[in-house]
Amino acid sequence: MTQAAIQFHLDECIPERVAHGLRRLDRECTTTHEAELRGATDLDHVEYCRKHAKVLVTRDRDFLRIADQGHEHAGIIFWTEKHPPSQLVRDIDALCFQTTLAELRNAVIYV
Question: What is 7-110's CATH topology?
Fold first, then answer.
């Protein structure tokens, strides 16, 4: 049985070039603009990701608080900005080989 590919949603804090980099590696992702979530609340983003089984990629600490409060989510990748966006793309790609969408559910991964 084949595992479902992990899909991602990049919030507005993540540079557009990260989406381009992920797509060059054949990783499915949406941006806030593409998902028509500009101006949406953080909880709206979490719900969108949960509903569409997309792991949220962000550098907004508000999402960490939401996760700490026990809100269900499809997974959060928190970019600490210790490395450039190109490294974030490589880290996300590597993560796809190391875990599954089911394992990422309600998990927060710091990169």
Answer: Rossmann fold (3.40.50)
